[in-house]
Amino acid sequence: EKTMVGSPIILLLEGKKEGNVHKLILDVKTRWNSTFYMIDRFLVLSKFVSDVLLKKPLDPEMLTARELQQLRETIKLLRPFEKVTLEISGEKYVVISKIMPLLNCVTIEIESIQPNLDIGIELKRNIIAELKKRFGKIEFLYMIPIATILDPRFKNLHFRDPVACQKAIAEVKKLAKNSVQDTSSTECSSMDEEQKTDNFD
């Protein structure tokens, strides 16, 4: 399979010069999304790979039409995560208020995908289960929901649980009230100190 990467035959079939052509990609374990990009590129070049393999009977067999469709459904289910990793890695500072919106958008997109083959259906089920397992209680944490509520870009738009949303709003109101009280107490203390100083003079 490695001999297929950048194969001159593929360049010839595409009618493109080297340097202006898509080549097959190998995954790199230390790089995010590399397996995703490898599969995605293979699907793009699958027709050319098939043409090459037809002329090489001793090489590995080409995937069947069903197997290619399984890969397409897999890529479709993984693409939302690729978008999220690009969004996160593209910023110098990822604010905490972005976590819930990103998770919510990924979940909605995954839920909207309707795979037809067993592998795609099972993968979708597993992804949703893992999202719930790892992040299902995130709206009931303390800092993340509050940060999301206070971010004017998101507010309460990305809460999936109304109880968690109301709890976060109540916490924000409580913090605001305590802040006002603390400010008032500080101002009163300052005034008392000033009066004591005046009396001493």
UniProtKB/TrEMBL annotation:
Entry's Gene Ontology cellular component terms: nucleus
InterPro entries the record matches: RNaseH-like_sf, Vacuolar_transposase_reg
GO biological process terms held by the UniProt record: regulation of transcription by RNA polymerase II
Signal peptide region: none
Positions of the UniProt region annotated as Disordered: 181-201
Protein name: Zinc finger BED domain-containing protein 4
Species of origin: Sipha flava
Gene: Zbed4_3
